[in-house]
Protein: Klotho beta
Amino acid sequence: MDTFPQGFLWGSGTSAFQTEGAWNQDGKGVSIWDRFTHSSARDPFPKETADVASDSYRRWEEDVEALGYLGVRSYSFSLSWPRLFPDGYATGEPNAAAVAHYSRLIDRLLEKTIEPIVTLYHWDLPQVFQDQYGGWKNNTLVERFEEYAAFCFHVFGNRVKYWLTMHNPYLVAVQGYGRGVHAPGEKGGLSSALIVAHNLIRAHAKAWQNYNTRFRPTQQGKVSIVLGSHWVEPHVGQPIAANVALCQQSMEAVLGWFAKPIFGDGDYPASLKTKHATLLPTFTPEERLWVQKTADFFALSFGPHNIHLAQSMAHNGQKITPDLRRLLAWIKLEYGNLRVLVAEGGWFSNASVGREDTVAIYHMKRFINQVLQAIKFDGVQVFGYSAWSLVDGFEWNYGYGVRRGLFYIDFSQPNRTRVPKTTAHYYKQIIADNAREAHDE
Structure:
C-alpha cells in the first residue's frame, strides 16, 4: 500500500443541468439544453428531459449530506448561467433566488470544511444567446462570458478558491455545433466546431485575465479550464516511428487543440494548422499574448465521452486505452510540470445495474491507482481527484439510460432519495485511508 500526498483534495462533482431540475422555477431562464431536450431534434436519442433530474436545486442539502458520508475535501459543481441571468446578460440585475441558492450551498460546504470548486459554464448556455447570436459561433459571446464570469467572481469569489471557467470545450464544439448530438443540436461540421472552439478559448482567456487583474489581488484564488482527453498508443506490431507520430497528432487534435494555446504559446498545434489549413481561425499576435498561460493549474476530464469519440480517430492500428497514468505523464512532458486536478474521473454503468456496481468499482480502482503511480513514479503534481459523479443524473444524449453517480437515484420516485452504491462505500474507504496500491508498470 502507498499513500497520496497529505492534503490531497479528494472530491466528487456534479453539473447544474444534469442534476438541478427546477428548470423553469424561481425565475430561471431557458438554456440551450432545455430547448434541445424539449425538441424533436434528439433523434435517435431518448426523448427524456432534465426538467426534474436529481432535483438538486431543492435537495441540495441531501447532496451535502452525501458528500459528508464520503468524507470528501472538495465538491465540484457548476453555476447555471440562465438561472443567475434569465436573459443571459450579466450587466443587468441577477436573479436573487439563484444568487441566494448558490450562496447557501457555498456557505454550507465551507461549514463542513468542503472546498467548493466552481465551474462557470458546464454547457447550459442561455437560449437567448443562441437565438440572438447563434451561440458560441459568434464572438460576441466572448464579451458576454467575461461579464458573467466577472459577476460570479465578484459575488462568490471571497468564498471560492478554485474556479473552472468551462467544462470540456472540445465536446461543446464538436458534439454541440459540429455533429449536433449535444445542444444546441447544430450540424455545422468541422468549420463550425473550429470557430466555436476558437471563441471558447478566447472567452476563457478573457475571464482569466479579468480575474488575474481585478480579483486575484484580494481573493487569492486559482482559475483554470477543464479539458477532456482520451489516450492513444501504437499497437504492437505496427511501424513504431510513424505510429507514434500519428498518436501525437491524435492527442493534439483533442487535448492539444485547447491546451497548447492556453498552457503553451497562445497558438494551435502545427499539426492542426496543417490539417485544417484555411478552416482553422487564427489568433492575432495580440491575442496570442493574452491567451497563453491563462490557467493556474491543469484541470483534466478523463471519462467515457472523449474515449468513445476517440475510437473513430484511431488510424493504422492505434489503440485507444483508458490509461490515465500515461496521459498525465504526457501532459507533464508536453506542457511542463504543472499542478494537476483530475476534475472528472469515472466511468458509466447501464441503468439496470442499480446499486451493486462492480464494474464502476473496477474502473475507479484502476484510475485512482494510475493517478498514484503518476505521482509516485512519474513526478506528476496531481493535487486532487474528483470522482464523477456524486449522484445519478441526466447523462446528456444517453438520458437516464446510463448512470455515473456514487449515489443511486430512482427517477420514478418523487422524493429522489440518495442511496449510496457500492462505489460510494469503496470511495469512502479510499478517502479514509488516503491510500491505494501503486505498483510501477
About this structure: The CA atoms of residues 374 and 380 lie 6 Å apart. The mean pLDDT is 94.
